[in-house]
């Protein structure tokens, strides 16, 4: 990219970031924007291991839950600010991921996916059965502090919006760095053909584990953000299979292993979900039904996700501009 | 051994045989196509709903619905494989197609929430009091559905093993599972074999659903519990091994039932996952699977 176009993009981005809270000024709309950003962030975290690394994790709720519970317990029982609790959660999640990842990475594809589900179930059952400290199946409430930015709380949604923007930007940059580095090249090689990568001397286990630990630590930070934003956590919500699947689905539908896939996937899926909720008048299950349906359709018609679909539309548009009347718009398929 | 423990052991074996049957379908599909059907539990859930509705509205005996339910699921499986899974499967060149895995994850979420919308979140039970009839053998107590479940699950498992071993189409399925290219050189139509094995997998899970429904109430997410357990059993028994699925089911059944005598029920559930992770680590090919690679 040339210098002026870089400036142009930067300017556009800044206008967008600052403009959104002005346009979506009522707290409900802004909450939806914040959730879009949170899911984009989680999908970026998942993308490191699930997309770029090609290891289908269906257990990322484990890391989300560890993050949410760590910072919350440290806050309500020990008075530690969730800003530090967040880092503690990330470190603990990374450590557990390293321990669990070692055996799990001996497994491939479906075996790995199953092991991640099983590990998440074990963590969830432990939390559900720890009644005092972790609140058991009923969960924990984060003590309400009102306007206390130093304690990661505020009554204004703009505060969370700002934090979420920073988180997404950081996750985006980490993904970009991973894609454009030796590390990313190794991961891509492992995804494409693990035997070939091994034969070429790539330390397969090490790079997979590094990506997994980084991904888990980032996801834990998302868990803390969720706890502070919603101020209530329960095992069913933060350790649920549904959450694990949603994180993976957002990234897969957007485009596995791409730089813009997670952002695109989160935007379209969450706004679509919200639209479906309004359209169906809030029928229970309609939103997740839509998730399932979209997932099946995307995999059936364009397994590379929305990024590839948009790419095809853009390509066919530029072609039809060059040669009007010659081509049909085949990109929408 | 005390009577209570012995009872728990036999209870575990009885429910384990049904768990094994749920896992059998999954294992067959994996053994032949190397695909993982994450929607497996949802098909179990659907079978259970059909069985509940058929016994309620038509007044049929719970055992009388087994064959119709199996037939419905067989037909569904035959066409789902042909029109949904086959096109995705053909696009993927890798040994373990991840696209199918993601597709069936979508199908799983879709079906569960479809039934949430149709049937609501509440548990539904089978009508009639067959579920409550018991048989006393010495000091031991068994319910009639428990005995029927064990006997029929065992017979169906044996039936599938004989079918795969002795019949022409069964051998075609096994040949394709062992080497798809070699089988097609010999003139075996792999598309048809895949349809057949997917359909048999669903028919078997249909039988399992009918056996389970007098023992467990059904709700849209009942498949999540049993589906996950089926995956664990398949891995324990060795992916693709039919006999392994049966024995894996028995082990999980005993673990659950006897474990619950010593630790709270929810911890017994955790025990299953921990054993699963341990087996994955020590013997990824499963307890009864052949060592490959």
Describe it.
The complex is a heterodimer of chains A (333) and B (293). Chain A is mostly helical. Chain A is built from 15 helices and 2 strands. Chain A has a two-stranded antiparallel sheet with strand order 1-2. In chain A, helix 7 runs antiparallel to helix 10. Chain A is globular, with a radius of gyration of 21 Å. The model of chain A is unreliable at 325-333 (pLDDT under 50). Chain B has 293 residues and is mainly α. Chain B has a single domain (3-282), classed as ABC transporter involved in vitamin B12 uptake, BtuC (Orthogonal Bundle), CATH 1.10.3470. Chain B has a two-stranded antiparallel ribbon with strand order 1-2. Chain B starts with a helix and ends in an 11-residue tail after the last helix. The chains are: A mainly alpha (333), B mainly alpha (293). Chains A and B meet through helix 5, helix 12 and helix 14 of A and helix 3, helix 4, helix 9 and helix 11 of B.
Q: Would you give the CATH topology of chain B?
A: ABC transporter involved in vitamin B12 uptake, BtuC
Main beta-sheet annotation of chain A:
2 strands, antiparallel
**Beta-strand percent range of chain B:** under 5%
What oligomeric state best describes the polypeptide chains here?
A: heterodimer
Per DSSP E runs of 2 or more residues, the count of β-strands of chain A stands at 2
* Weakly predicted, low-confidence segments of chain A: 325-333
CATH architectural category of chain A = Orthogonal Bundle
Shape of chain B: globular
Topology, number of strands of chain B:
2
Number of helices of chain A: 15
Judging by the overall fold, what is the CATH architecture of chain B? Orthogonal Bundle
Q: What is the residue-mean pLDDT of chain A, rounded to a whole number?
A: 87
Q: Radius of gyration of chain B from the CA trace? A: 19 Å
